[in-house]
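Task: complex structure prediction.
Instruction: return structure tokens for all chains below.
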Amino acid sequence: MDSTFDVLIRNGYVVAQEAVVDIAIDDGRIAAIRPEIAESGDTELDARGDLVSPGLVDAHVHLDMALSATGDRRPRNNERRTDRIDAIERTAAYFAETDGEEIEARVRDVAGRAVTNGVLHLRTHAYVDSEVGTDIVERVAAVREAFDDRLDVEIVAFPQGGIGRDEGSADALRAALDAGADLVGGLDPATLNGDRTGTIETWFDIATDGDADVDVHIHERGDTGTDTLRALAEATIDRGYEGRVTASHAYALADAATGLDGDSSGDDGGDRGGRGDRDDQLGDAMETFTAADLRFVTCYGSTPRGMPIRRVHDAGLVLAHGTDQVHDMWGAHGNLNAIEAMLVQSLKLDGYATNDGLACLWRLITTEGASLLGRAEDYGIEAGTPADLVVHDARSPQWAILERNDPRYVLKNGNVVAADGSLAGTRPSPSGRE
Amino acid sequence: MDSTFDVLIRNGYVVAQEAVVDIAIDDGRIAAIRPEIAESGDTELDARGDLVSPGLVDAHVHLDMALSATGDRRPRNNERRTDRIDAIERTAAYFAETDGEEIEARVRDVAGRAVTNGVLHLRTHAYVDSEVGTDIVERVAAVREAFDDRLDVEIVAFPQGGIGRDEGSADALRAALDAGADLVGGLDPATLNGDRTGTIETWFDIATDGDADVDVHIHERGDTGTDTLRALAEATIDRGYEGRVTASHAYALADAATGLDGDSSGDDGGDRGGRGDRDDQLGDAMETFTAADLRFVTCYGSTPRGMPIRRVHDAGLVLAHGTDQVHDMWGAHGNLNAIEAMLVQSLKLDGYATNDGLACLWRLITTEGASLLGRAEDYGIEAGTPADLVVHDARSPQWAILERNDPRYVLKNGNVVAADGSLAGTRPSPSGRE
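Output:
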């Protein structure tokens, strides 16, 4: 009798090999990759010549407030453009007033959607403040445990009210690192917190005490934003935290690259449009970012059109992608679908609709995401890496984005955890959603 | 025994009624709409409280060149931004060299995709020139006939090479009206054709001879584009063609609304970004457009960010939407999915992500499209109208766009023609696509 593998994926197109191959899986890891594998598999999946990719990465999402906009015919809190201060207050009220079980159920629901969409690694923010303390972090951590065989989850403790505005939130942030959070979060030190240097120092004090990485929202725009990013990079170097700090959103990168003039800090995402006549502001700052190995995440709902994605990658810096909202009170959009997000990016951003542009967008949700999460070594389709794989219903990364089909199979550690738009172990409803 | 209806849709949310109702269908038309219908239906479909809408409209697509970018790992002709003159030459070569059966098979394929996506009415352009004559129009007309119980198709004979550049194409255009085309097409009279007045006159000469409507591509930008739109409107009035002329794309509307300065005619779609300091140019021209009842279509892949959709609607003018490409040599995007297109628009355009913005985008693919196609009288969910209906997997138009789910059921003349992502009479493959 022939020897067998646990799983064999037949006829998968693998980009790194530029070839259609068979992929053998044993004990949750890739055991062999060859044009044709003679042995059989206990489970055999036919990729039909279509793309097989590593698991997709969503590097920035707020699972904890997912689905808070649903329930009505008209999405909640979507009657006008989001005002940040209003939204911060709404968020605090939501977490103070909503039953923890309900929040946990929503997180569980959308974690399943992520897996169904081929997302196998994600970093989520989880709310902390002086009122709810670490309750929300604990709810998200409970779902992480329930999904530990399907989805890798990093949790950022996120004091959204601002540690400069809500005094108790710094304590909650410290406590969160004991309650399951992996990273220290924060936002807008110069504007919302009103003290750039002091806020950044506090973030690093807490992070270094807990030996935790840092991932902070920097919405600040124009010169203010660039100054904040630079200050963050300098603090990173001072603290010996190179490669451990992420600036999420970092709209100012786009402003600096496109020469947007003026100091327009504190605005919500979106695009500021105009091109001023100042010189490119990005060059200088990039050296500091490089020295700090500062990492960046952009999110499709708010990526400015001029975000210099290629330039950041070309400089050797990590820039990944997150879907951010999942129908929540900050934005009614969001299906935890990394590929759908790249379809939007390809039609929204300047210069990413071509084949090379699409390849660049694909990196955002694969290799760049893996680097951001510190998984680069164990990521990719090669013998020995964990069998976290997606069999797509598309011929290539470009076609996966253009056609936006549901993955045919999603495998975590060699197990099929989702297929054709449904989680494994669940029956598709007639409508195809659970 | 109770009297019965042919079909009953139970528990459908209808926007016009702001209520969940039962919809009875007899002889292909809506027979009754009531909160609860006591009689039974030979077929009963449960909408579960989700949205039931009229069939979606795709007002501008090129079915004839659909899928011409497919077949390779890297989408064809997508290595760089489309150059119009190159693409015109590629298109001519494609139609001259590709087997007619193959073109027809592709048109048939994507017509099925349209139906699956809930699109029941569309206007397609079909290529004519001095070499292929009316061959392509005849192929598209053959598919129209094959789909006549599932999809309403209008055909625009489209002399893409330009009647001013390819002399025989004017004759082909005339012949096309006898070969199955309904409308006279064309493009860019001032730039590509090089003679604004003469080209417009020729279009109308051919149209009036055949009593056919007109739908022409106006890519021209800035002042050149505005002047062309105005000249088109004036000719419309001169010829007594009010309400029978469509300007597709009409990028200049956005340029005029945002005060883009300078004459930047002849460029490809996309967005020109900057806001000049000139006054709003749109006001004057709008009066002429209104007098002519000039109609407009915009397409998500190329809609400029500043397209004044609300303003055009508020002026009482028709502005509808088309998906334009279906993975073709002009653009690798395009899934003939009107809802997916609106998801992109909502994240790409300025000011359409809110609930009212989403409602406006929904009108583009429903009522505005019906008006453009002259179907306004027979469109909508009320007793007596044809039962061309979509049962969505979403609570409302806003949620349909945000969630981008496949429709649960698509009905044409009261028959279920597609369900859950598959055409009726076809079995879904394991991957959910045919």
